[in-house]
Specification:
Layout (H helix, E strand, L loop, with lengths): L2 E2 L5 H11 L1 H7 L1 E5 L1 H6 L5 E7 H7 L2 H4 L9 E4 L1 H7 L8 E6 L5 H10 L4 E6 L5 H13 L4 E5 L8 H7 L8 E4 L2 H10 L3 E11 L8 E6 L8 H4 L4 E4 L11 H16 L1
Helix pairs in contact: 8-9, 8-12
């Protein structure tokens, strides 16, 4: 079995480019997944390549056949530990990295999921979310709080950014999401299907003062500026998360978490 020992190898250069270049990831229609936990949760029908360091191959090699990856599989690439460190985006590489086919959800897919659910629906509509850690945390929260799907404004950060992918802790494989050029139009589509829309806003009503509708969506704005007037005007009701002390606002991920969990609590 061949082992790649040079950083100049074209396969290694390709991985480094995918890690750093959002346009290239989009062009190739793939993204990078790294780490043993994410690896174990991978849907292997979407895996294009698997890179394993020599040390990780000795430690985790027996798990590969369980995922349909054998020594003869052309998708398997073994590299030296030093080469893997050059590819890794983490401080302590675990020696496993996969190139995975991107997802292609549409608004129709999200609506189809909504129609199949009997216990109500919650959507998160994100406008201009710029911080990768926030976006990854929101995706992770979405699964935990039983969110139906996430709608992401096109000027938000790339969900396939390696930092976002790591922050999702594997939930990116299971939570439906769609990028839209115009979040306001997407909100109109949700309303056509009976979704009541709430906007997170400092001038809103107390989140805990009333009962939320069973089928709902929450509008979450940019970390620094909040919702634009255009999108907030689409809300049927503006909601405010009550805060003590002199705190004026919460970051986008925390706001999304509190809103989604309150909806989940009321649906249970």
């Amino acid at each position: 079995m061949e082992i790649i020992t040079a950083n100049s190898n074209p396969k290694i250069k390709n991985i480094n480019k995918l890690n750093k270049n959002a346009s290239f990831r989009k062009e190739e229609q793939v993204f990078i997944v790294e780490g043993i936990r994410m690896f174990r949760e991978l849907p292997f029908d979407r895996v294009k390549q698997v890179f394993v360091s020599e040390t990780a191959y000795q430690r985790y090699g027996t798990e590969l056949p369980e995922k349909g990856i054998t020594e003869q599989d052309r998708r398997l690439v073994v590299v030296s530990d030093s080469v893997f460190r050059s590819m890794s985006q983490t401080k302590t590489p675990q020696g496993l990295l996969a190139v995975v086919e991107r997802y292609h959800y549409t608004m129709e897919d999200l609506i189809s999921v909504m129609d199949k659910r009997e216990n109500g629906n919650t959507f998160l509509v994100l406008e201009s979310i710029q911080d990768p850690g926030n976006l990854g945390t929101i995706v992770r929260t979405a699964e935990a709080a039983d969110v139906t799907g996430i709608i992401i404004g096109g000027d938000s950060c790339d969900i396939y950014n390696p930092k976002v992918v790591r922050s999702t802790m594997g939930t990116i494989f299971r939570v439906p999401f769609v990028y839209v050029d115009d979040p306001a139009k997407a909100v109109d589509r949700l309303k056509e299907h009976g979704i009541v829309v709430y906007g997170a806003h400092l001038d809103g009503c107390d989140l805990y003062a009333g009962k939320l509708k069973r089928n709902n969506a929450f509008l979450i704005g940019n970390e620094g500026n909040g919702l634009t007037d255009e999108l907030s005007s689409k809300a049927d009701c503006l909601l405010r998360i009550p805060m003590a002390g002199q705190v004026e606002s919460l970051n986008a991920a925390i706001s999304a978490t509190l809103l989604a969990y309150e909806a989940y609590r009321q649906r249970r």
